[in-house]
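Record type: monomer structure entry
Structure origin: computed from sequence
Chain ID: A
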Amino acid sequence: MRVSSVISSDTALAKGYARGSVRNTVFGYLSHMAGKLSANAQQRIALLQGYTTNVGRLNSLVEQYANGKTGLDNLNASIKRLASQMKISLMGVGLDQMSQLCGAIEQTAARGSSQPQKARTLREHVGSLKFQMELAIRTTIRDDEETQASKKKEKASGQS
């Protein structure tokens, strides 16, 4: 057994891994939750979680832009490029509201205004995007749990 593959219990507890639960996403949903969900809900959550890395990257670029003194043009171009790619990708899977937010981020990055004003607007848009992503995950989980509960209730009433 390799030493690097073993995590001591102190390190695991310090990082928040309690009794074998593993962090599955940036937003902190645990992997054991996926076993309770239907296949459609698991697929939808996996799709949404695939975008969390891009949202995190976009957030990082915006924060670098907001705190940067030099190289702002390069950061601005990276923000526009990533927002454009995400806009097209989100539109392709039917997440139109998040796609529109990415379009707003792209437009804000393309506009000419002062750096503090642009940074404030970009932060607001990225915050909205993160909220919408988290809301979509929570809504998917809640809807699936309600569907499973109603099916279980129908099954129980049909047997009695």
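Annotation 1: The two ends are 54 Å apart (CA to CA).
Annotation 2: Residues 37-144 form one domain.
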